[in-house]
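The instructor's notes for this session suggest beginning with a concrete chain rather than abstract definitions. Hand out the sequence below and ask the class to guess, before any prediction is shown, which regions might be ordered.
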Amino acid sequence: MLKHLVATSALAALLIAPVAGAQSTAQRLYERGAYDDAVQRVNTERAAGNDDPAATYVAGQALLKLDRNNEARAEFARLANGNDQTWHAIGQSAIGLLDNNLDEAVNEGRKARDMSGESGFAFYQLGLVLIKRGEFDEASQALDRASELMPDFAYAHYNAGLAHQRAKRFNKMAEHFQAFLQLAPDAPERRQVQLALNSLRG
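After discussion, reveal the predicted structure:
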């Protein structure tokens, strides 16, 4: 049975925090399923001189949702060709995952995680690869950390919930799925998540 879940003070704080910056705007559009708008927002900000790697990563993820894989690869290549070594490894990992080269993807993901230690996107990208590989215990650890470092990124909670679900840790699944629904009530996955939560209640 689903235990009563109470939002933490950190989650409550992030829900009332103001949204600022191009990356946050693109992120919010992405979390609503407005994938084209998210990509357009990133391109507009980039044209204005704000070439933020986090926004580039979000644009790549949005393009994947649109099945525009070549454009997504180009976004991840921007990261891989940049000067920041953590983002370079994240971009390489994302390209490896896109190409189903999971050995390269996990190696680059772990490299990004180990180089940064505090990059939420490094842990997030690694978690995505580990889910694809079926390594749900390690995936859940990576995505738990991603959600700690980026508590306002709904999909860190969503994918952490998926990893815990597949590892049959349903209380942790529920915790992350509740956070996901609070952060992204209009996300395309909301019905799937709500059904998973309802199934715990019997």
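Then share the key points. The first helix runs from residue 9 to 16. The chain has twelve helices and no strands.
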